[in-house]
Amino acid sequence: MPAEFRDCVAIVAIGRNEGERLKNCLRAAIGSVRTVVYVDSGSRDGSAQFSRTLGCAVVELEPDPPFSAARARNEGFAYAMQANPHVDFVQFVDGDCTLVDGWLDHGLLALNKNKDVGVVCGHIREIHPKASVYNRLFDLEWRQKPGEIGACGGNFMVRVPVFKAVGGFRADVIAGEDNEFCVRAGQQGHRILLLDVAMVWHDAAMYRFTEWWRRTRRTGHAYAHVAALHGKNNERYFVRECRRIWVWGLAIPLTALVLAPFTRGWALLLLVAYPLQLIWIFVNARWRGWESGDAAVYAFFAMLGKFPALEGMLAYHWRRMRGKTMTIIEHKQS
Question: How many CB atoms lie within 10 A of CB 152?
């Protein structure tokens, strides 16, 4: 990055027990800009201490209020503004991601050329896609068509005035907070642009089925929460996703099982819809140019994922009904 730009961008990294992944993240960040803030959410692996040895500003969050990615990014942003009031842009990066060399230049160029764009992001690449079937799934999920999009994940570059105008992340949204932020940014007229360049290397390091299940459950929680907040707006955000989960995760199997005793088992034929839908997803993936193996893996887990996602949606509505405080959902044991 040219020297004249090093002061206009701050990097805010967040993490919790990320280990070596965080070290790679911060090493890539510290040489890019002058202001790098690391926000730690109760790590027990020495993350905060290591960050200080690199020269990062470190914010260690107290456990009350509860940890969340939204809270971490908000406090990191606030600290960056105090450390360098002249910052015009902030690049958020998760602790399991490493910024690609040259990305910041691409992001800055896009924001300077398009004044109506408030947020830019690039492609996320899985660093070890062949290490496990779950890493492979991550790599497939990251494949998006570049251009204007409705929302992006937590790795993005944003204009400081836009972040302030939107009000930052909602701290009570414990999953899907990045999508929810983008929805509000779009409502204020700020475009979100996905550039056709690599932005970060993501290190999923996921090797257990239980980790995948918990992550997908968190996704369902995110769908339900964001849909509750914005489902009645014109965007109908996440409403379609929630409807599909209700149908495939609950309505079809429940109907088949309840009606089976009264139809001599004929109602169980409803379950044929699952292999048919799996074939449909596979065919669509092949039309998109995916290899057969990738299409098959994606189709299988897309269908299976309706069940943990349903669990996450039910958990959200149960918490909401009981007035419980939303707390962090982790897919890996800390």
Answer: 21
- Report whether 29 contacts 124 (CB < 8 A): no
In order of 62, 94, 194, 258, 328, the CA distances from 59 in angstroms are 10, 15, 29, 53, 18
Residues recorded for the chain: 334
**Smallest Cα–Cα separation from 5: which of 76, 74, 106, 79?**
106
Residue 31, pLDDT score: 82
Q: What's phi and psi for 151, nearest 5 deg? A: -165, 160
Long-range contacts, stretch 328-333, CB < 8 angstroms, 24+ apart: 328/41, 328/66, 328/67, 328/68, 328/174, 329/174, 329/175, 329/214, 329/217, 329/218, 329/221, 330/16, 330/214, 331/206, 331/211, 331/212, 331/214, 331/215, 331/217, 331/218, 332/206, 332/211, 332/214
Nearest-angstrom CA–CA distance, 29 and 6: 11
The token pair that represents 43 in the structure block: 């790590």
Residues of the chain with pLDDT under 70: 1-6, 325-334
CA distance 16 to 328: 11
Q: Could you tell me if 144 and 193 are in contact, meaning their C-beta atoms sit under 8 angstroms apart?
A: no
Structural domains of the chain, ranges and CATH numbers in brackets:
3-206 (3.90.550.10), 230-322 (no CATH)
| 155-195 pLDDT per residue, tens | 999 999 999 999 999 988 888 899 999 999 999 999 999 99
